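Person: Please work through this fold.
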Amino acid sequence: MAAILARAGAGATAAGGLRSSGDVRRRRNAVAVVAATTTTGAGPAVPQEGSMERPAWSGETPLSRLVGALIAFKPLYSLMKLASREVIIRTAEKSNVPWREMTKQVLESDVYEVFDRIRDLNLVYPDYYLSPFHAYDEGNLSWLAAAEAEPATMSIAKRAIPDAGSIEEANQIVRGNWLNAIEEHHLKYSGNCQINDILDIGCSVGVSTRYLAEKFPSAKAVGLDLSPYFLAVAAHKEEKLSRQNPIRWVHANGEATGLPSNSFDLVSLAYVCHECPARAITGLVNEAFRLLRPGGTIALTDNSELSPVLFTLMKSTEPFLDEYYMLDLEETMRQAGFVNVHSILTDPRHRTVTATVPF
């Protein structure tokens, strides 16, 4: 594990470190903290300062325009979309993720009964959410997307830590670093406020929500998502578990949850922002600020830099990827009222941005 962490940290430092003066124009204004893996014995990694940069292929660059032109050509777009899906499935199967078996188990279960209980028929979906996502024409509003979400998540962890001996080990690193970043930020800036109430916005099928509930077992956790299909899978899986505080699942829009103000100590958005246009990300951050108590922590974990090839494949299934990379997320959080804004590269492919609601 230590050797794998060291290699992961080397990749993270390379992705987040300073570049040549010719690339300064692309550098983000915000200072980030890059999670190094220099450890003392079995101790935790020590964060180091670095700069998070806007990738060369985002925005109005020749490469970005080329990718946009490729996607605009429908026959090629269809091939790119299929290729992106194949990359994820192939990676999963090579890593011994039983993709098809896991999908079949969900689709042949009684999850459909849970769907009827959890869906809010009065919910109006924002226009951006009705776009195709992840090679699904219906986006997140389909059973296949919901059934494949967990194996896809497992595949992402393995791709982030390719030297891990198993999916479980990759998840320990990816999720462990993310959870540690949250805990350390809250301990440092919350004024000794306990984490009693957690909201996981964009919880999908509940993978991140379950990790949060296990990390903070005395807290009450709520998983909220726009997709009743995802929530039905999350709730169905949770019914089989025994937990001190069962997770509550809410079908709602993360930009306007309808939940009471000042009612949470931690709001998490895990791998949500890259799927949203800039206006929606701003709305999510503002809503999180409203929902958090003074001293509460927001934690957003999402993509850092990707290779141009992977970006090209992802952009064919992620319509708002450019907007995510062009947005100064740290400044957006400050404008919402957050303080103590910090970014950590928690693995070579993902960063976690944490901040605090002032007292």
User: Anything to note?
Assistant: The domain at 62-358 is CATH 3.40.50.150 (Rossmann fold). The first strand starts at residue 27 and ends at 35.
